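Problem: given the chain below (118 residues), write out its structure.
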Amino acid sequence: MELNGARISKAEAELDGHLYTAVLLELPNACVAFISEGELRMGTLAIAMPPGKNHPPGSISAVVVGERFSFLTRLLAERLAISKGKITLLSLWAEGTEAEIGSRAMEMLKKLLAGGSP
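Solution.
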């Protein structure tokens, strides 16, 4: 779906018996993504910048709000920033341990990068 130059993608999947929802709002210069277990919710929020021409490889990221899954949220935000080459805000909300959530959240990000379902 497109709205005033912004592309919106959504992905849903049942992973290990848990329903996950992910939404990506892609603007010309930035991305905003939500990955949630169950219905969409705001969770730990990270910002990431893609690598620049005069910067070392890799992206720069920081957690803006929250502390649960902070490393995982930063990792996902960085991956999206590098994949899209855009500033990224990414929110992750889920229940469980970081080890359980990690593979599920990564799978949802892959679905969003594959285009989700517009």
